[in-house]
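Section 3.1: Structural characterization of target chains.
Under the original work plan, the team committed to producing a structural model for every single-chain target entering the pipeline before any wet-lab resources were allocated. The record below documents one such target. The sequence was received from the expression subgroup and is listed exactly as submitted; it comprises 185 residues.
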Amino acid sequence: MKIAADVEARGGRFVDTPMTRTPNEAEAGKLALMVGGPADVLARIRPVLDCFADTIVHAGAVGSAHRLKLINNFLAICHAAAAAEAITVAAKAGVDMEALRAVVMAGGAASTMFGRMMNVPLHDDDRHAQFAIRNARKDLRYYTNMTEELPVASFLAETTHQITVLAGPENRGVPDQPNRAVSQE
């Protein structure tokens, strides 16, 4: 917001435009964008954004798009952590993975994240579950900082952040690379 104020003080126009989705969607030109700033500026730049995004959401004033992204990433990372735990428990308990997918996706626990993550044990396909642990940890820390400033309790975010700390490369002895543990919507 400080950058926006500086740009506007010099006669410019500013929008914050974070993006989401995976590298696969980026390559296909199907990113999702959240735009914070004046609607007329969004209208002027939309033809450029349409070149690489198929979802563009006007989030409100400058800064609102980044807050929206943090909330979205919090949900996606928490869903991924819950799905990873459930899938691991199911595998160790001998639960049929097709049955798990059918039951979960037909009920209240259904989520895009769970559906994507089930592709790993069912089809050995992790193309939609690649997001670096360090990015998940960073996003969750930004989210918890935001909640502290509001102030709002964020027990799930703090717990999930600690999961990403424990899963980090420094605790696994391997370089941080996209992995099967965390994905991003």
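The longest strand covers residues 53-60.
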